[in-house]
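call fold(seq) -> tokens
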Amino acid sequence: MIRTQNLTLMFDGKALFEDVSITFSEGNCYGVIGANGAGKSTFLKLLSQELEPTSGSIVVEKNKRLSFLKQDHFAYDEYSVMNTVIMGNSKLYDIMIEKDAIYQKEDFSDADGIRAGELEEQFADMDGWNAETEVAMLLNGLGVDKMYHDMMMSDIPTGDKVKVLLAQAVFGEPDILLLDEPTNHLDLEAIQWLEEFIINLDSTVILVSHDRHFLNKTCTQVADIDYGKIQLFAGNYDFWYESSQLLIRQMKDANKKKEEKIKELQAFIDRFSANASKSKQATSRKQALAKINIEEMVPSKRRYPFIEFKPKRSLGQSVLTISDLSFGIDEEYTYNGINLTIANDEKVAFMCENELVVSTFFDIVAEKNNDYEGDVHWGSSVEHGVFSSNFADELDLKTSITDWLMEFSDEKDVTYVRSFLGRMLFAGDDALKNLNVLSGGEKVRVMLSKLMLEGPNVLILDEPTNHLDMESITALNNALIRFPSTLLITSHDYQIVASTVNRVIVFNNDGTITDYLGTMDEFMETRNKG
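ret:
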């Protein structure tokens, strides 16, 4: 169990958190959510005591071990993979190192023997003899190849370092587990393994994630950060989202009725207050009016952009035909003789262990890459729009958002483009910002704005959720569900592909492809059975 008592953290004279008192109990998984800048990661750093609060305290139940997912992928380069994971339990690791150092002494004394015996007893009590076996199981579950288990951290791929640090965090099943964006850079199999691990863990888990599917699978409670406060809600992310939207609608409806009543009363007062025969009624209505207090609806800091993809042209039956396509990114990932036909009622997810394969394929079909053999043929009615994972190359960073988007708008009108940008959360002078000063998430919203202005009838989206906050991801997800035409997409956001696609195509490591007609959930179920 871990709790905060009157926790306050000030930045530049402003309170990020103020008088937060909250208890996180054993056996629950808490998903920490909030708008960008609300302080989700900062809150986890406070809980881990990496940061000191301005006032208040963090209380960890006595004899409870706390573990925190480290973010520096190169901090352990001088250690072996095995030892890096065991460091997740610092007490066990320290005992192991001291014990081994004693045994390596040339002048082994009686005192050393006594100390070694004490350490051996502590080591056994902590199940140290099974530590390496547990490490191997964790690494295998996360998909780290056995060849890396005994190597130095400096010698393994960066993608596997991420998994090793995650194994370090969960090693020994800590009593309190803090995870900041644990699914970043993980493949679907590793994410599924982590989901099951957390579900079966009896510890207190507190995590931050933009992966809504992961939050829905693992969380028993949601910790919502807004206005410097943290409020707990029972249930997963979807339950919180639907409940919060319902609450807002109810409050608006209630206020609307009150406003209508006030207007009715005020109209009566204005009409009859000068009429002597009606003066009593007017007075009573003035009194009734005074008793009506419209509840101030304090708007959440969360802001949802308006995303809507409306094709300007109807799509014919023939969309995309690929014949004898051969391409590759290196000797390991080479594909020959690919034949595919995609129709106008299909939304297709593309997957590969190596993300560059799908990006290269998308560049080929989007006519941005000519380094291939075979034929790629689009139907005559197709107007495709592309979101590239390396979209930064497309932006003219010296221009303003409005000027750059004007090029893609049928209406060459500044007022129209600025009103359009207002719905994409670039209100007022924000629409006049130069592209070079925008954050990653803002640049993605600009690229999505470009697609909406173009109005294509086929969307090709390569990791469109990178850099986006939860609110923008939710808005994009809903827009893709509503999109009435053909979609080609690759995304780490499982919920987006699970809620939109009806076909899954996988580029396998052996140079073949798997073409599955069905939803993402159905595909994963079939794959897991296989």
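The mean pLDDT is 90.
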